[in-house]
Amino acid sequence: MTGLTVLIPIALSLGLLGLAAFFWALGSGQFDDSDGAAARILIDDDE
Amino acid sequence: MASQALIPPATDTETDIGTTQISLFAVPGMHCAGCIGKIENGLARTPGIASARVNLSAKRVTIQHDPTLSPPDLRAAIAALGFEAEPLADPGVDVAAAENRMLIRALAVAGFAAMNIMLLSVSVWSGAEGGTRQMFHWLSALIALPTVAYAGRPFFRSAWAAVRQGRTNMDVPISIGVALTTGMSVYETLIGGEDAWFDGAVMLLFFLLAGRCLDSLMRGRARAGVAALLKQSAPGAMLLDDSGQSRWVAASALRPGMMMLVAAGERLAADGRVMEGDSGIDIAFLTGESAPVRVRPGDLVQAGALNIDGPIRVVVTAAGPDTVIADIARLMEEAAQGKSRYVRLADRAARYYAPSVHLLSALSFAGWMIAGAGAHQSLLIAVAVLLITCPCALGLAVPAAQIVACGALMKHGVLVKDGSALERLAEVDEALFDKTGTLTLGRPVPRDLAGLAAEDRAVVLALVQGSRHPLSVALRQALEGEGIVPAALTDLREQAGEGMTGRLGDEAVALGRPRSLITLFDLAAEYRRGDRAVLLRFTDALRPDAVETLADLRAMGLKTLIASGDRPEALTEIARQTATTAIGHLRPQDKLALIERLRASGHRVLMVGDGLNDGPALAAGHASMAPASASDASQLAADAVFLGDRLAPVAMAVRAARRTVRVVKQNFALAIGYNIFAVPLAIAGHVTPLVAAVAMSTSSLIVIANALRLKGAAR
Known about the structure:
The structure holds two protein chains of two kinds.
Chain A: H1 2-27, H2 34-40
Chain B: E1 15-17, E2 20-26, H1 33-45, E3 49-55, E4 60-65, H2 71-80, E5 86-88, H3 95-125, H4 130-151, H5 153-164, H6 171-190, H7 198-229, E6 236-240, E7 246-250, E8 259-262, E9 271-276, E10 279-282, H8 284-287, E11 293-295, E12 300-301, E13 306-307, E14 312-318, H9 324-335, H10 337-340, H11 345-370, H12 375-389, H13 392-411, E15 414-416, H14 419-425, E16 430-433, H15 435-439, E17 445-446, H16 454-464, H17 470-481, E18 490-495, E19 499-504, E20 507-512, E21 523-529, E22 532-539, H18 546-555, E23 559-563, H19 568-578, E24 582-583, H20 588-600, E25 605-608, H21 615-620, E26 623-627, H22 632-637, E27 640-642, H23 648-683, H24 689-708
Parallel strand pairs in B: 16-23, 16-25, 23-24, 25-26, 26-27
Antiparallel strand pairs in B: 1-2, 2-4, 2-5, 3-4, 6-7, 6-8, 8-14, 9-12, 9-14, 10-11, 10-13, 15-27, 17-22, 18-19, 19-20, 20-21, 21-22
Helix pairs in contact in B: 3-4, 3-7, 4-6, 4-7, 5-6, 6-7, 6-12, 7-13, 7-24, 11-12, 12-23, 13-23, 13-24, 14-23, 16-17, 23-24
């Protein structure tokens, strides 16, 4: 029972962390150009 | 709606950021990593450009540059890298993208909350009691309340809007169900009751938001595709003032009486009269006619026309909302109002669904009260009925089927703008085709190149490569399609109205207006090498599968009809080939009237057209399709845009739309079947939160699985 008081906040805060990370990714435009992201890996920078 | 992108918005293309400006260009030709690298690195090396960033999904380039560079300069810089680009208006106001983003945020929050509450609920169901259960209920409430308030907003807002107008839609039972369930659970938690329904309420929101997101995603994707194809009318013009100075002015600042300098390859930003210069202009967007029209001083030219041959000076006669193109846009907007009256399938179902659900819930409350169960118990059962009948599967049934079908269609080159378009497409029983550009390709195609030796083909390709003349473009496409490598020429020159000249070694070569033969009805060009001359003829060819597609549509039970602005004589051949009645000499208003007549006689018309003259008819049709080569206005007005030279996508889209509606109706039946099974349980008071959670997930999974069968719908 005392374990719960520690484990539940940990579980919730980890979930919240994931949610915050997703919001950050959305806000910084990570999902704006999925085709471009797939193609960019193929660009040779040496050219 | 149709006029939004047609009339350049009042804001400028550029936005100030410090000393640099940001401009946005649509570059439809990009499709690979090589293109990204070429454009980003190439532009960064151009003086005055600070940086360039490509968005491959939207086929756009964002350029940060010195304010002295005007849009034509930037376009020239992109053209120098081998890509055609068109400036795009204000990037800031993308309402659809903002809405989509908001829905995804709500979905993320609801997903997080649903998972965590489910975790707590599972412990309660597996036997947590007393203080532990109480604590878990409180924790669930702590997570659920902010979630419902945040993630429920799209539904609450839409439901409120509907109720205020005295209508009802799917969102009304959803909002009532979610709000009542949450309220009841809070009360149960307060009094230390046995069951709380937070998991059900939040899971419901999660599933419904998933449906909403799919819907919005589909609309956004098709719109981005169409926007990339759009060739916007010019955002501004180079002005010549009295002192002979020239400066760049935005289209919104143009006034009658101003003098515009229009270089070859530029579009006009306003209506006007040619004062100086002699050129050919392409007004295909207005007439659908592919051949350029010759203009001389004194002739009228329209905003959006493409100047092809040489520089002209044009005095502005009408700008902004007074232009011909804006007039047609208004006509289209009025015609489109009929379409906005269309009620979507899901909302039609909701008309019957919502009242019956509420009645059922009220009846079970009354029934249990009469049976003497007490107010508390009766209310719990009424809430359980509301929750179990919440149109969870219904909310997913429609968007899931439509997005799968749209995805399948998109792979085959048909961009459908939204789900309602798919529903309307399934209902059409008469197809009306425009001729030029729709049944035909709408651009000149070389009739045969057999007269050219392999070496000559390489020379012709080298000659036409730098020219924007429609015949040059046609030759370039045909020759590049054969995999010909251009020859190395020197002294390459283009002269307005005359053609291209150059030298191959020490032999003079040229491509230009035919000297030997004047043809009245045919387009032709003459290739000259030394003293040899070859005549190249062009024709506006029927789309390769037009005859089969029309026959296919008739086999599907659609009547077909050709409506054209062309001379009736020009239609006889096409009418004979396709075995379809053709009506000629129709102006845009006549086409509109024809559709109105057909509608009045009970037909649902699918309009397929491309020119701006088809715009009002496209907007008025029950459903409409346009080829990707169509004018901007037509692409905006049409429900679906199809790519490529083939006409088969029209029949394919109708067939896929019909299959989609069939699957949607199956999904409705499944959802109703689930209710027939679950509602008696709820009314009997046997639905615990566990049963509700299982029933809801299962029914949602079943409708999604059924929708996935549409993956191969586009055939």
